[in-house]
Specification:
alpha/beta, 5-stranded parallel beta sheet, 16 strands, binds zinc ion, 4-stranded antiparallel beta sheet, binds adenosine monophosphate
Length: 471
């Protein structure tokens, strides 16, 4: 297995990857909050995670990769005040929270597929399926004296846990931080954060659970610690996320996990820089966010976005513009055309000849902290290389594409099928019936969904609906 060097945010150095167990590499990537469609900035984080995943497979490692679905607990305000984003969206649309998260979860997976991210290589656990683990972890921290109890809920006491801030601390002197501390009565320090929030008196939440501290819901950070440790182990090889997560979310994850286990949570921390709009942040309020669907409506192929991302180092901010996307798409389509002109007969596939020098250049670039820009440059060198036979050219391009993932064109399914709210509601009712083991009602609801032209698919503990073929 080839050694690969990756940049670690914690030590601020390039470090060789040395997996804990054999060839297996356990990776946890912070996933989306399912209350709206993910924008192309979010997609940069997942194309990066997928590039890492592909690079590891390319070098013979076996990634065990989790991307979580946040379907509860992420508040509109990072300082533990504000509304739960999912509950808020559900109220606005007058729908069940579960219907909202099912819809945006399906949309997210469909977007990943359009970017040629093979979703069957990943696990996508939902926070609401791991409530007991989150409660147990909070109890462990409570027993160790790292928590305090206030009317709002159970808080992590960052002053009691001395190593807090493993990835570097934001400046607490800043006035807005001081303003924030006031927002939750009883919170002792701006860095402290909620592990469990009590449902306030007089409030009715759709998603809430009983706990040793009363009815409520988990804080946003605890889900990642609980799911990573449950699904991947106490210590994982690599943790990824966007750079916005370093100061708060990831410091908090480390404090929770290491506070409970007394051992290292993640050996390597990798962070992807932001996709920006000129010097501005992508933000809904500035009206400058786009989704994959928006790009398709403007007749861009989603893989043009993947190509655009791969042109830059994942560690440098990338400024989005439609002009840049145009050039990426032009280059991508030229590549597709030249690739399609190379031999593709069944017989030619038996020939595995490829160019050793170009393959070595690809390997060296990938092993150097995923230098995809260099791999793309090698792809163009392969195309220009007149000394290669057509078959060798094709095979060498395919070798580079194991990591890039831009050569194939995933089938475009046309416009996204929107599942009507009535059908979503029937699905939620069916999920409830199944949870209550009331299978005759569940079956009747499935029949009703079928009559409306949709099919229920139960897989990996999650039920979704798809439009029936031919309807
Ligand atoms: P969120 O749903 O806001 O938690 O974001 C999901 C993932 O996308 C996280 O890893 C974020 O750090 C990342 N992210 C959000 N905005 C951007 C952006 N503009 N560029 C790159 N990554 C982003
Ligand atoms: Zn996370």
């Amino acid at each position: 297995m080839r050694l690969i060097e990756l940049y670690d945010t914690q030590t601020k150095t390039l470090r060789p990857l040395t997996p804990l167990v054999g060839r297996q590499v356990c990776i946890y990537s912070c996933g989306p909050t399912l209350y709206q469609a993910a924008h192309i900035g979010n997609m940069r984080a997942y194309v990066f995670a997928d590039t890492l995943h592909r690079a590891l497979r390319h070098f013979g490692y076996s990634p065990n990769h989790v991307i979580n679905f946040t379907d509860v607990g992420h508040l509109t305000d990072d300082a533990d005040a504000g509304e739960d984003k999912v509950e808020k969206q559900a109220a606005q649309e007058n729908q069940a929270a579960e219907a909202i998260t099912a819809r945006f979860g399906d949309l997210f997976l469909a977007d990943l597929k359009k970017l040629n991210i093979k979703t069957n290589r990943y696990r996508f656990p939902r926070a609401t399926h791991y409530i007991q683990e989150q409660i147990a972890l909070t109890q462990q921290l409570e027993q160790k004296g790292y928590t305090y109890d206030i009317a709002d809920g159970i808080y992590f006491d960052t002053q009691a846990y001395k190593p807090y801030g493993a990835l570097g601390l934001p400046n607490t002197e800043e006035s807005d931080e001081h303003a924030r501390i006031q927002r939750v009565a009883g919170k002792k320090h701006p860095h402290d954060f909620a592990l469990w929030k009590r449902t306030p008196d007089g409030v009715t939440r759709q998603q809430e659970w009983d706990s040793p501290w009363g009815r409520g819901f988990p804080g946003w950070h605890i889900e990642c610690s609980a799911m990573a440790m449950k699904l991947l182990g106490t210590t994982i090889d690599i943790h990824t996320g966007g750079m916005d997560h370093i100061a708060v979310h990831h410091n908090n994850e480390i404090a929770q996990s290491e506070g409970a286990s007394d051992t290292v949570f993640a050996n390597l921390w990798m962070h992807v820089a932001f996709l920006t709009m000129g010097s501005e942040k992508l933000s809904k309020s500035l009206g400058n966010t786009y989704t994959i669907d928006d790009l398709e409506q403007r007749e861009y192929h989603p893989l043009a976005l993947r190509y655009l991302f791969l042109q830059a180092s994942y560690r440098t901010p990338l400024s989005f513009s439609f002009a840049a996307l145009d050039s990426a798409q032009t280059a991508l389509f030229r590549l597709h055309k030249e690739y399609a002109a190379l031999p593709h007969s069944l017989l030619s596939y038996l020939n595995v000849e490829r160019n050793a020098a170009h393959c070595a250049a690809v390997d060296a670039a990938i092993a150097d902290d995923l230098n995809t820009a260099k791999v793309l440059a090698t792809v163009h060198a392969i195309l220009r290389d007149t000394s290669l036979t057509p078959i060798s050219k094709r095979n060498t391009l395919r070798y580079a594409d194991r990591v890039l993932g831009i050569l194939c064109r995933p089938k475009q399914r046309g416009k996204q099928v929107i599942i009507p709210p009535e059908v979503q509601d029937l699905l939620v009712q069916r999920n409830t019936a199944r949870a209550d083991k009331d299978y005759s009602t569940a079956d009747a609801l499935r029949t009703r969904i079928n009559e409306l032209g949709y099919e229920v698919i139960d897989a990996n503990g999650i039920s979704t609906v798809v439009k029936k073929r031919g309807t």
